[in-house]
Amino acid sequence: MRIAISTSGTDLDAALDPRFGRTHHLVVCTTGSEAVTHHANPTATTAEHGAGIRTAEFVASLGVQAVISGAVGPKAMQVLRAAGITAYASTAPTARAALADLQAGRLSVVT
After folding, report:
1. Is the overall model pTM greater than 0.90, yes or no?
2. pLDDT at res. 44
3. Do 56 and 80 form a contact (C-beta atoms < 8 A)?
4. Are 6 and 23 in contact (CB under 8 A)?
């Protein structure tokens, strides 16, 4: 499964960013692999309104099946659901810890 994680940096050791729509960085990884790619969120600072929706559209274009973030707003959730992407809420300190929580079944699905 390909997963996008909102972070404050460019790798799995970066702090988890609790903001989905305004996160500056998205780390994409595949479960069972240490390989990650970094993507700067193009709407983090440029969108006056609708950052969550635009970020969800961007994430969908990356071909992920899941998102991990601190919070995902209702409008962004509509876009993610329409794209078949599951969102998980996490309060983990790092992206790596959030990913481990997901793999252990400790994260709840955002509804």
Report:
1. yes
2. 72
3. yes
4. yes
